[in-house]
Amino acid sequence: MSRADLFVVCKNPDCGAEVSPYVTECPYCGRRIQKRAPKLDKGLRPARRPRRMPAPSLGRLRADEIPGIRADSGPYATGAIIVGTCFVWIATRGGYLGGAGNLVARHPLGSRWWTVFTAPFTYFFSGQVAGAGVYQFATLLAIAVFGWLLERRHGGVVVLVLFAIGAVGGTYVAAIADINSHAIAGANGGALALLCAWAVPDLLARRAKREYGGDLLGTGVIAVLLLAMPLVRPEANAVAGGVGVLTGYLGGLALAGRSGR
Questions:
Q1: In this structure, are residues 226 and 192 in contact, taking their beta carbons and an 8 Å threshold?
Q2: Burial class of 22 by CB neighbour count within 10 A (0 to 12, 13 to 18, 19+)
Q3: DSSP secondary structure code for residue 44 in this structure
Q4: Is the N or C terminus of the chain more exposed, i.e. has fewer CB atoms within 10 Å?
Q5: What would the pLDDT profile of 108-154 be if each residue is shown by its tens digit?
Q6: What beta strand segments (E) does the chain contain?
Q7: pLDDT digits (tens, 9 = 90+) for 176-208
Q8: What is the residue-averaged pLDDT of the chain?
Q9: Which domains, and CATH codes, for the chain?
Q10: Are the beta carbons of 42 and 33 closer than 8 angstroms?
């Protein structure tokens, strides 16, 4: 049978339907039309079933792909800072660790150099209870928000380094400077370091009239609150806050440059 024969006629006089030349029985009346169907030409044979393709997978994201998003993971570094602060608060309220007054930094440091590491986690100490809760809440809120945002974008190591330089370094510089001759406590320097490091790339993007995703107005309000905290709580040292701002500014420039490559 040639390719020109597009159909055959059923031989049943009561049917006479036109059917495909590649069937052996009429699909309408069931009468046998031919003993076997003709072979298909190569050009008419159905194509082979394609082999299953491997499941698509995304490669490793570059820094400029979907800016601000890393693989989802818990904010472990930020959580460790907050948990450490809560631990010190509970321990000192329970009379452990020798009391909160022994953990704050004072000028001169002398043999108590280690207090630069404990002071950023201490907020309540003898005779300084009024208003300390506001200072602690504002500082931990800033650390939680901007530490989490930075950790999603750049990872936990960046958060820990910025916090250490801003908080511990700020406490050390404030103790050496001895501007207001007052005990130094709290992590306003660390909070400002995280806040500024998050805000600087967005400020640069805004200056360059590029799209940015941060809320600069809300960030500014929190920054003003932290910068003004030394007016209410003298242990929130202004020098420590200044070190935090400088740390966050330089860190933000470095992070913006890394993301732009």
A1: yes
A2: middle
A3: G
A4: C
A5: 999 999 999 999 999 876 555 567 788 999 999 999 999 999 999 89
A6: 8-9, 18-19
A7: 998 777 889 999 999 999 999 999 988 988 888
A8: 82
A9: 8-39 (no CATH), 76-259 (1.20.1540.10)
A10: no
Q: Is 18 helix (H, G, I), strand (E, B) or coil?
A: strand
Show the tokens assigned to 77: 């570094």
* C-alpha–C-alpha distance, residues 117 and 128, integer Å: 20
What is the Cα–Cα distance from 148 to 65, expressed in whole angstroms? 20
Q: CA 237 to CA 42: how far, in whole Å?
A: 87
Q: What is the pTM of this model?
A: 0.70
Helix (H) or strand (E) holding 213: none
User: What residues are paired with 184 via a beta bridge?
Assistant: 105
Pair of tokens at residue 86: 């809560």
Q: Which distant-in-sequence residues (6+ apart) come within 8 Å of 159 by Cβ? A: 77, 78, 81, 147, 150, 151, 194
**Contacts for 210-213: CB closer than 8 Å, 24+ residues apart:** 213/67, 213/68
Q: Give the whole-angstrom CA distance, residue 168 versus residue 244.
A: 10
DSSP of 50-89, one letter per residue?
PPPPPPP---PPPTTSSTT-------HHHHHHHHHHHHHH
DSSP secondary structure string, 101-133? GGTSB-SS-GGGTTHHHHGGG----TT--TTHH
- What is the Cα–Cα distance from 246 to 228, expressed in whole angstroms? 16
What is the rounded distance in angstroms from the CA atom of residue 143 to the CA atom of residue 124?
Answer: 18
